[in-house]
Write a structure and sequence with these properties.
Strand content: 5-15%
Structural class: alpha/beta
Largest sheet: 8 strands, mixed
Distance between the termini: 47 Å
Low-confidence stretches: 1-10
Shape: globular
CATH architecture of the largest domain: 3-Layer(aba) Sandwich
Number of strands: 8
CATH topology of the largest domain: Rossmann fold
Number of domains: 2
């Protein structure tokens, strides 16, 4: 697998941002000790974030955008030193979320690898956390975002918006902090990780952990990293992000001169891209966090959890999504009828439609906020 080491700090093998790299648009909040849902705490927690616009005098115009598994805080803007990729939701800001009206915040998730504390970060003993990084949940990620909101002086979000893993956080926000969210917008997501979603994650985790360069999660500083395993994980995942129809129309059975089918080359390309910018340890930690997702856990089930929801809930699904199928989004609406109706994003692209169909999603966001 080819790797673009140009985005790495000197001597760094795995992708991801490290102290000493250019900050680019990142800002950093030092949040101190963060208690964790499963017990214990994470000391000296840092969250990297980006912002657009400014808080108004009433401080009631703040919007939080929550990224998906391999996203980051860089919602819009170009690539550059310290920022290997352009914004993952380019077109949303300013066309549908105008910074002259809204103070938009996006944070790199807890456990991530783009400036927030994760397994590649330095632990108190001066070594990378590696295998010692605690098992975190979606609720822990939201708690970290709440601590960031405190640091920014934001008592209440006008909206929390997220798709996929970001949608998991968007629905958890008003359940954990019922007085701090006016509207939660949940895109291409679910109230719980389903058996099939967990099953798709299983071979991805196995591929990384079976890589001989995994070293039990403690590959940091060895000059090696499980990039082959990460690439396999990405290939598996990327098939679930797209629809069968799109792959058939776009690639069919077209061969290439090197002996690969065009669709194989496409998957190889995405595997190499991810290996150049993402840390395998974060991929494992965040995948397991997604598997933990269940808004009904310790709340009497999904219906009971949503019974007392005080925030407005807006739910949208992608009609061709086979990873987070519309029926799971419909379950949220059925459990909380005030959220209805279910909004459908029409797209041939599958799960990634929530990122690609910017005009449909952006119009929904604009309608919610005005």
């Amino acid at each position: 697998m080819s790797q673009d080491h140009a985005v790495h700090a000197p001597g760094q093998v795995a992708g991801g941002w490290r102290p000493g790299d250019p900050a680019a648009g990142r800002q950093f909040a030092e949040l101190g000790e963060l208690p964790l849902e499963r017990g214990g705490s994470l000391p000296d927690t840092t969250i990297a974030y980006e912002t657009w616009g400014r808080p108004n005098a009433a401080r009631d115009n703040a919007v939080l955008i929550c990224h998906a598994l391999t996203g980051d805080a860089h919602v819009v803007g170009p690539a550059g030193p310290g920022q290997p990729t352009p914004g993952w939701w380019d077109g949303l800001i300013p066309a549908y979320l105008d910074p002259t009206d809204w103070y938009v915040v996006a944070a790199n998730v807890l456990g991530g690898c783009q400036g927030s504390t994760g397994p590649s970060s330095t632990a108190p003993d001066g070594r990378a956390w590696g295998s010692r990084f605690p098992a975190i949940t979606i609720r822990d990620q939201v708690a970290a975002e709440a601590a960031l909101a405190d640091a920014l002086g934001i008592d209440r979000w006008a909206a929390v918006i997220g798709g996929s893993m970001g949608g998991m956080r968007a629905i958890e926000w008003p359940l954990l902090y019922p007085d701090r969210v006016a509207t939660a917008v949940v895109l291409a997501s679910t109230g719980y990780a389903s058996a099939e979603q967990i099953a798709w994650c299983a071979p991805q985790l196995a591929a990384i952990e079976a890589d001989p360069h995994w070293h039990g999660g403690d590959y940091y500083g060895t000059g090696e990293a499980p990039l082959a395993g990460l690439g396999i994980a990405r290939r598996i995942a990327h098939v679930t992000y797209r629809s069968e129809y799109e792959l058939a129309i776009r690639f069919g059975r077209t061969p290439q001169g090197d002996g690969r089918f065009a669709v194989e080359s496409y998957l190889d390309h995405h595997a190499a891209k991810l290996a150049a910018r993402f840390d395998p340890g974060s991929y494992v930690v965040l995948t397991r966090a997604m598997n933990s997702h269940d808004i009904g856990r310790d709340r009497g089930g999904q219906h009971e959890a949503l019974r007392g929801l005080r925030s407005r809930l807006v739910v949208a699904a992608v009609d061709s999504d086979r990873l987070y199928p519309p029926r799971l989004s419909a379950e949220l609406v059925d459990a909380h009828p005030a959220a209805g109706p279910l909004h459908l994003v029409k797209s041939p692209y599958g799960h990634d439609g929530f990122l690609i169909e910017v005009d449909q999603v952006g119009q929904l966001v604009a309608d919610v906020l005005h």
